[in-house]
Specification:
Chain lengths: 258, 153, 268
């Protein structure tokens, strides 16, 4: 019994210490971001890796999700004769929740895991120590561009997801179900508010990008220098970042509406 | 390996496309453009606005011409609704405004009916003739109690 | 039982010196009481079995690893208490050749070698280009500018990494297992490059190795790591000393070979 309590205590202490370590890590990444040089070339390469290379995934997923939303919303709304609200339902669902959240989860799975694995491999092969011996901060040279790239790419990918999703809904509602295109778009435009919906959506994209960027780089940076250690940190990046995205999503939704 | 300039171009297109998507959502879908100045602003007072909310559309003969920008309570405790309309509209001073509901349970909006006077409403003027929202709950309430059906006004 | 190294006064002052170093990873004790030194302008070879802490010794010198106790002095400066920023001053004097090169695999060979110049000097693009090409040529590489590290063979990769390690003109060169995994021609090539750097530029070189023949040929000074302690001396001294630990580690054949090398003739 005391053993279990002691283990629980030790685990809690470890957890809090880990949180502290991660906070210090985040602080040093922010400090690195504020310190010149900007590392524009590296940043462009990283945005290419996490942003451009995620495009097909995001656009394809967004389109299909929009189509499903259109179909489901039609089935429900048609019962109440409220088909003219289809645009509002599809658009609001995408802008407020599905766009940012699904983009966050998909990009974490694709680019966040790759970021963790990439940094982990650099730890394993001594590339980060190599930088340290050249008096180049690995946080500034490797971590900060990767984290910033995710921060920049996430809201952009989320916006593209939403726009393609709205188009996917349009295709189903107008082309397949034969509803009036004007009422789809005007119901969408009337229902969506800039501050409550669009700004909140962009904020979510930024927060999710920050979470994915910091968690994936932290996990990679602190991974054990073995193949097994790298794969462990890759897996935990996806799990931890996804859970953090879902939890923070609830709080942004709850607090932004006030 | 991807050539550097090709990658720059791809990243540039990606960032531009993403920003355009944000701009589309903000301006077209989110209606950010209506918040800008330069439109025709009119004020209308109602006893009852029901579920009318800011950003609700304003229409003439079913054509959208603007939107509600603000709803406040005036000194006489009536609802004061600010409308931002297309600046090119020429509305007579006896134009009336009424709050309607799209469909049975849909969103509420304001519809304007132009009058016949020659004098026109100018920026900042008040629409004198207003018809308040049909309050569905009140209406049902009166029906249930078998009293006067027209009691919503 | 401590084994300290009394260097022959003729070999000069210690450029790198470790004293009473204690280091443990969890329960695994790597160094109990390590004392060793690398004289200025000489080649010091660190020998030891796997897990004896050869790489860790280099990491201590580079400030990548802090000892639990003891002192590590580089060019007279104590590095154990220094923060990352202060370490910069010490690391400027050190070039390090990592075991697998540790070149950044996402950028080209040219950019890898140019990196320290870009980060720490105000040289313009033309100067950087000529400097990088000069260094690459000095290790016998050309036409590799645009290649990624993954596209080079093991020997070429090691030489490119060497070019990067010396591009800032360090005083001290740390080489972690520079010969491991290479075929004999490449071993000879790296060995010749290191010897030339030592002779021509007067670099202090510390090499970890388990490649006995090249160690005996190159080393002015040998350091044997064993059970968390070090035994050191010139090859001839070590062999002549007849320390049972030395004989046990080197094996009697190697001792015979070393005796030959130490006597200045090529023994067989």
């Amino acid at each position: 019994m005391t053993g279990a309590v002691a283990r629980l205590g030790a685990r809690s202490v470890d957890w809090v210490a880990g949180l502290g370590h991660m906070t210090r890590f985040a602080g040093s990444v922010v400090a690195a971001a504020l310190r010149p040089p900007l590392r524009g070339r590296t940043l462009v390469r990283e945005i290419y890796d996490v942003g451009v290379r995620s495009l097909a995934l995001i656009l394809g997923s967004g389109f299909v999700v929009g189509m499903v939303l259109g179909l489901q919303a039609y089935n429900t709304l048609a019962r109440f004769g409220a088909e003219q609200s289809l645009g509002a339902v599809v658009g609001l669902s995408l802008i407020r929740e599905l766009g940012p959240v699904l983009t966050g989860l998909l990009v974490t799975g694709r680019a966040g895991s790759a970021t963790a694995a990439g940094i982990g491999a650099m730890v394993t092969t001594g590339q980060l120590d190599g930088l340290r011996m050249m008096s180049i901060s690995p946080i500034h040279f490797v971590v900060y561009p990767k984290a910033l790239a995710l921060l920049i790419a996430m809201p952009l990918l989320s916006a593209l997801f939403i726009v393609v999703g709205v188009f996917g809904g349009y295709v189903v509602v107008v082309e397949l179900l034969g509803l009036d295109p004007g009422s789809y778009l005007s119901s969408l435009e009337n229902a969506v508010d800039f501050r409550d919906d669009v700004l909140a959506s962009v904020l979510k994209g930024v927060v999710f990008g920050l979470l994915a960027g910091l968690i994936s780089t932290y996990r990679g940076y602190t991974s054990e220098p073995t193949a097994e250690g790298v794969s462990r940190s890759t897996t935990s990046t996806v799990v931890v970042a996804s859970v953090c995205i879902l939890i923070s999503n609830y709080f942004i939704t709850a607090l932004w509406g006030v | 390996m991807q050539s550097t300039s090709g990658r720059d171009l791809a990243v540039g297109i990606f960032v531009l496309g993403g920003l355009l998507a944000v701009a589309y959502l903000s301006v077209q879908v989110g209606g950010l453009s209506y918040a800008g100045p330069g439109g025709l602003t009119l004020v209308a007072r109602f006893d009852e606005i029901g579920g009318l909310s800011p950003r609700a559309p304003v229409a003439i003969s079913g054509v959208k011409v603007g939107q509600v920008t603000a709803i406040t309570l005036d000194d006489d405790l009536r609802a004061e609704v600010r409308l931002d309309l297309d600046a090119s509209l020429e509305l007579p001073i006896d134009t009336s405004a009424s709050i309607r509901t799209s469909g049975l349970l849909g969103d509420q909006f304001i519809t304007l009916e132009p009058g016949g006077e020659l004098d026109l409403l100018a920026d900042g003027d008040e629409i004198d003739f207003t018809y308040s929202a049909l309050n569905l709950e009140k209406l049902i309430g009166t029906l249930v109690h078998e009293t006067d059906i027209g009691g919503s006004e | 039982m401590t084994a300290s190294i009394e260097t022959d006064p003729a070999t000069g002052e210690a450029h790198v010196e470790l004293d009473s170093v204690r280091l443990a990873f969890g329960r695994r004790v790597v160094f109990r009481d390590l004392r060793c030194r690398a004289p200025r302008g000489r080649v010091t070879i660190v020998l030891g079995g796997s897990g004896s802490g050869k790489s860790t010794l280099l990491r201590l010198v580079g400030g990548l690893q802090r000892p639990d106790a003891g002192s590590v002095r580089v060019a007279g400066e104590e590095v154990t208490g220094l923060g990352e920023r202060e370490l910069t001053r010490v690391r400027r004097k050190i070039g390090m050749l990592f075991q697998n090169g540790a070149l950044l695999d996402s950028i080209s060979i040219f950019e890898n070698v140019a990196l320290p110049l870009r980060e720490h000097t105000a040289k313009d693009e033309l100067e950087i280009e000529s400097e990088v090409h000069r260094r690459l040529a000095s290790v016998g590489l050309d036409d590799v500018d645009e290649l990624l590290p993954g596209e080079l063979s093991g020997g070429m990769l090691r030489r490119a990494a060497l070019a990067r390690a010396i591009v800032m003109d360090p005083e001290i060169l740390l080489c972690d297992e520079p010969f491991s995994g290479l075929d004999p021609p490449n071993v000879e090539r790296i060995e010749a490059l290191l010897t030339r750097l030592n002779r021509e530029l007067g670099l202090t070189i510390i090499v970890t190795s388990h490649h006995m023949a090249s160690s005996m040929r190159m080393g002015d000074q040998l350091v044997l790591l064993r059970d968390g302690f070090a035994v050191g001396g010139t090859p001839a001294e070590l062999v002549a000393g007849g320390d049972p630990r030395v004989v046990e580690f080197l094996g009697s054949d190697a001792v015979a070979a070393a005796a030959g090398a130490g006597a200045g003739s090529v023994g067989s």
